[in-house]
Amino acid sequence: MLSTEYKRVLILGGTGEAAELGARVATINGIEAIASLAGRTREPSVPSGNVRIGGFGGVAGLVEYLRQMKIDVLIDATHPFANQISYNAAAAAKEVGIPRLMLIRPPWNKVKGDRWIEVDSNIAAADVLEQQQAQRVFLTVGRQELATFAHLKDIWFLMRMIDPPSQDALVPPGVILCDRGPFVLDNERKILIQYNIDTIVSKNSGGDATYAKIIAARELGVQVVMVKRPAVPAREQVADVDGAVAWLLGKLRSKE
Q1: At 40, is the pLDDT very low, low, confident or very high (cuts 50, 70, 90)?
Q2: What is the reported pLDDT for 48?
């Protein structure tokens, strides 16, 4: 029988893994799972169960929430590039004195046939496009990063994102395509051919939902400018939902 000392688990979400984890944790007797979404997309995919949407207001706000809601365990299942909330979560969990886990999917690895140029930031990616004299670029780094590429007036961009940018946003020349993954290989291949794409700019998000564009690029010989993941705080870490559930059950049983 599991200990009842741990009762509430806060899952910092926004990924498919976070939604799946929330559903799994909700089936554990005596445990209440609360999923938190940043609310950056206008129509987020909201998981079932208890959900809060919006930021916490930095470390202090998260600490206050953890204490107010009597959270016993914090699981960070945010996007690999959402490193600021991960640092905030690390600091808040330490201050409150509760266990913290990161559920973070493995990055993609370059394989035979891939034509990758790996860079450390979107700014570096924009520099590479200019240096490589790219002409038609499939930009898949999200609407918040569009301004980084807006000065590249001699390049045409196909820009895919979930929500359109605001009317006053700085946007590079090209076409905006609003769509939400997962994406299938046939469609990604058609996009690259239809728009005569010579370069893809992508974050190394990992997972299956957006990997089809990388496969299509490999098949068609399209260059990929791959933005590496930012650093994240030291942590206990698992790579999948099964690992997160096993970790959580271990924490609960250790308190019996």
Answers
A1: low
A2: 52
Q: Identify whether residues 133 and 156 lie together within a single domain.
A: yes
Start-end of H helices in the chain:
16-25, 58-68, 83-96, 122-131, 185-194, 212-220, 241-253
pLDDT value for 3: 44
Amino acid at residue number 176: I
Under DSSP, is residue 120 helix (H, G, I), strand (E, B) or coil? coil
Phi, psi for residue 15 in degrees, rounded to 5: -120, 165
Looking up tokens 């979400």 gives 13
Task: Please count the CA atoms within 13 angstroms of the CA of 112 that sit on its side-chain side.
Answer: 0
Minimum mean pLDDT range among 137-141, 204-208, 230-234: 230-234
Rounded CA-CA distance 124/128 in Å is 6
Residue 55 three-state SS:
coil
Q: Which two tokens stand for residue 208?
A: 């299956």
CA–CA separation, 157 and 136 (whole Å)? 6
43 and 82 share a domain?
yes
* Residues 127, 98 share a domain: no
Confidence of residue 37 (pLDDT cuts 50, 70, 90): confident
Check if the beta carbon of residue 76 is closer than 8 Å to that of residue 12: yes
Same domain assignment for residues 170 and 80:
no
Q: Which domain holds residue 90?
A: 8-105+231-253
Residue 25 — pLDDT band, cuts 50, 70, 90?
Answer: confident
- How open is the CA angle 109-128-168, to the nearest 5 degrees? 105
What pTM was estimated for this model as a whole? 0.85
| Beta-bridge partners for 176 | 159
Average pLDDT estimate for 238-253:
88
- Asked if residue 235 and residue 223 are part of one domain, the reply reads no
